[in-house]
Every structure is written in structure tokens, then in C-alpha cells.
Amino acid sequence: MSQLETAMAILLKTFDRYAGAEGNKATLNKAELKTMLEKELPSFLKDSKNPDECDKLMKALDHNGDSEVDFSEFVVLVAAIMCACHGRTKK
Questions:
Q1: Using CA atoms, how far apart are residues 16 and 43, in angstroms rounded to an integer?
Q2: Is 56 exposed, middle or buried (0-12, 13-18, 19+ CB in 10 A)?
Q3: What is the rounded average pLDDT of the residues 17-40?
Q4: CA-CA distance, 86 to 1, in Å (whole number)?
Q5: What residue stretch is flagged as signal peptide (predicted)?
Q6: Closest CA to 69 of 7, 5, 18
Q7: 78: burial class by Cβ within 10 Å (0-12, 13-18, 19+)?
Q8: How many CA atoms lie within 13 A of 62 on its CB side?
Q9: Judging by beta carbons within 10 Å of its beta carbon (0-12, 13-18, 19+), is residue 25 exposed, middle or buried?
Q10: For residue range 37-51, what is the model confidence (pLDDT) as tens digits?
Q11: Distance between CA atoms of 76 and 11, rounded to whole angstroms?
């Protein structure tokens, strides 16, 4: 596989690892999202002093209002983080 295909496969596998730990296997609930962020993006929450940060993130990502994050909503998170980081590293 190409590097991009490998990266896409890793994103799929990562989402699936956390989705459905409790309940629906196709979505992340708030607890699953928090666990994923803590394990896969530890620096994302590290600087946050606000314990409600995960609630705010969940609300921002949950475009369809079902109180869960589906794969499409997860991809929005990943894309937003990648856009924020783009240009911060030397090319």
C-alpha cells in the first residue's frame, strides 16, 4: 500500500478500536471519544485545564445531534487537527 493508503487504513482501524467498546460499534459515545483522545492524542487534551473540554468537542463534532460521533464526524476532527498542524513543521 502507498503511504496515504496506509494512513487511511490506520485511521479506520483506530476508529474501529474505540467505537463500540460500549454499545453501537459504528459510533463513538462520549466515554469512547474521551478514551480515544487520551490514548491517541494525549497532547490534544493535555494543555486543557477545563474538564468539560470533551463535552464541548463532542457537541462540536456531533453534527447530526445523536450524542455520538460517527466515522464521518471523526474524520472532520482528524482533518481539523491536520489543518491546524499543517505548516507548523518543516517541510
A1: 21
A2: exposed
A3: 90
A4: 24
A5: none
A6: 18
A7: middle
A8: 16
A9: exposed
A10: 889 988 776 655 666
A11: 12
The answer to whether 30 and 55 are in contact (CB under 8 A) is yes
Cell of 78: 482528524
Instruction: Say which CATH topology domain 3-85 has.
Output: Recoverin; domain 1 (1.10.238)
Q: How is residue 50 written as a grid cell?
A: 477545563
Q: Match 471519544 to its residue by C-alpha cell.
A: 33
Cell numbers of 33, please?
A: 471519544
Return the amino acid letter for 55.
D
- Considering 61-65, 69-73, 83-87, the range whose residues carry the highest mean pLDDT is 69-73
The full DSSP string for 60-90 is HH-TTSSSSEEHHHHHHHHHHHHHHHTTTS-
List the domain boundaries for the chain: 3-85
